[in-house]
Amino acid sequence: FLEARRQAVLGKVAAMPYEAMTASVLPSGWTPLGMLTHLVFMERRWLVWGFEAEAVREPQGDRDADHRFQVPNGWGYLELSALYAAQVERTRAIVEAAQLSDRAALGGWFATPEEAPTLGWILLHVLGEYVQHAGHLDIVAELLSDSDGR
Question: Which helix (H) or strand (E) holds 92?
């Protein structure tokens, strides 16, 4: 299910003209590339920093000071899709090396055993993020098609 949602999100963004990827049609101001940035950081935050407890530079780097999704300067679709693919591969490697019942290591996001969720819980949360954001991208695509007169 997670892989299908990943492909759906990437396909929705890739199908948009570049101008639509970088502009917002929503009052909140996020862009499709901002959403893709969020998903890269989200997987890294939950699996690398959270589950593996590895040091991660700017775990919240997908958000601006107002907590809105942002795209770091110089990042375009090609850079983001490469980062996305690399993060997905890293997540797969982490998942393949663990059991769903394994708890997150301490020292990254989680400080105590009580806080540390299982890998299964983390993956369910990650799937939920993808389902939610795929729906958001459907709304953006619909608004874009309406504005084009289709």
Answer: helix 77-96
90-102 burial, b at 16+ Cβ within 10 Å, e below that, comes to: ebeebbeebeeee
Interatomic CA distance for residues 12 and 137, integer angstroms = 7
Backbone angles phi, psi at 63, to 5 degrees: -130, 150
Per residue, the 3-state secondary structure of 10-52, as one string, reads: HHHHHCCCHHHHHCCCCCCCCCHHHHHHHHHHHHHHHHHHHHC
Distance, CA of 31 to CA of 33 (rounded, Å): 5
Query: Per-residue pLDDT tens for 92-110?
Result: 999 999 999 999 999 999 9
CA-CA distances (angstroms) from residue 111 to 34, 91, 94, 108? Answer: 29, 21, 20, 7
CA 66/CA 74 separation, integer angstroms:
21
Cα separation, 66 vs 49, whole angstroms: 22
